[in-house]
User: Fold this.
Amino acid sequence: MEIISSVYHFISAFFVLFFGVVVTIKFGRFFLIRDIESVFLYVWHSLFSLFYLYFVLSSGGDAIKYFNSGLFWDGDIAVGTAAVDAISALLVSGMGMSILGVFLVFNIFGQIGLLAFWGSLKHAVSGKVWWVRYLAVVFVLLPSVSFWSSALGKDAISFMAVGLALWSSLNLSKRGVMMTSSIFVMFLVRPHMAGIMVLAVASASLLDGKTPILRKFFLVFVASGVASVLVPFALDYAGIGEVVDAETVTDYIDKRQTYNMDGGGGVDIASMSLPVKMFTYLFRPFIFEARNAFSLAAGADNIILLFLFVVGGFSMFRGKKSGLNENRTFMWAYSLGSWLILAMTTANLGIALRQKWMFVPMLVFLLISVIGRSRVPVEPGQVSLERGRR
Assistant:
């Protein structure tokens, strides 16, 4: 497959690349990020997109299937894989883009999520000691983050949804429209994760002591109504069906645990206890388990993530607070719910490396916001960038 086969392919790819710069600057300012930082992140993220494209052209992958589906789209409009197929068809058959151009479009989706992630982390570490601020930089530049979110597929869109949800939860009472948008975007590619988001919003609304009782009932009523429609749909999409009981769920989990057991990413997850499953999902492979450059990079990322969990967990044990007034109930509900469900239904570490970034950004924020010296509460969106650079 040729990356570019015509002058139009070159022009359209260049236009998308330039358009991505404009989008990056606009969203970067919205997330209170300096232009130079935003553009640097765009270059960084785009390099991973090009590398991913080279990788799939050499070794194959789902991205090739999505591109071919765009060439021979059957007109199916639905969520999940069908949604990505439809977007691919719009770009490939509708606009005549090459696979490079399509990759660069999805690269923009992931870039928006990366900017939201960085903007949230900047808010979390503003005014903290230097090593905490540098740790935030390390997390936003982790190869695993940009690699999986820069390619044609579900991961770029779902990462954008999580980034927007994280930013929204910094001031959920004033960013409800963005939260709703993030849930809708997540629903397009991963309905079951959107269902978890809705339930997390409902939990946050119910447990928020500052919300007036009438508004609380209204929010819970709306969230419950959406969940009553979305959750059954998500369960049916996942293959459990409309009738859910303990036996059905158990059978579904057992079935999911048998998927992709062979190959470099397979682990015998069915024989593990639940805590070990969750630990394995989030922190493996270790460096000493690496068999190639990809697993070595993933192992290095996991060491940094494990370090954050140890230091952040110790800070929470000491009772340290972030003082940011963010909605931590939503973050914890969504993160833990996603972590639990995905760990119980995923048997392949290769899949886990991609899918865990649908909730890990929130865990990173929750933990990094409580380490380092304390500070006085500030309203989200009022943090000086100059203060963050000191």
